[in-house]
Amino acid sequence: MDRDAFGLNVRVLPNGALGQWGFQAEWLDGEWMGTDRDGWYGQASYSFADHPGRAYARYEEFDPDADTADDEYEALHLGYIYNITPLDQVTLEYTLGECATMDADDIIVQYQRKL
Fold first, then answer.
1. Cα first-last separation, the chain
2. Counting beta carbons within 10 angstroms of the beta carbon of residue 112, is it exposed (0 to 12), middle (13 to 18) or buried (19 or more)?
3. Is the pTM of this model over 0.90?
4. Which of 56, 74, 79, 82 could pair covalently with 45 via S-S, beta carbons 3.0-4.6 A apart?
5. Of all residues in the chain, what percent carry a pLDDT higher than 70?
6. Across the strands, what pairs with 74?
7. Which residues pair with residue 93 across a beta bridge?
8. Distance between CA 49 and CA 95 in Å, rounded?
């Protein structure tokens, strides 16, 4: 099956040009497995100078099939990433979302290790 898409991505890392603030956004429009899909998100983050952590807020919208009504996903994510070591981090995130006509709220705790 064909997979055709066009997208744009922009990213400003924290502790760079905007001080402790970071921003990221992405937009995508295309076709995958015979369906017209599109979506976007925008995210802002803040890295704290006095401890190893970063807070973020992200809003996203995704439509997995533009030809089908009531199948869109929208969500606001609020989270905090704590760096335990340079290789280990824990993320706590609250998601206030809606998928089609149902609530899609989540609380997520995630551990990651960089290899």
1. 34
2. exposed
3. no
4. 56
5. 99
6. 61, 98
7. 79, 108
8. 26
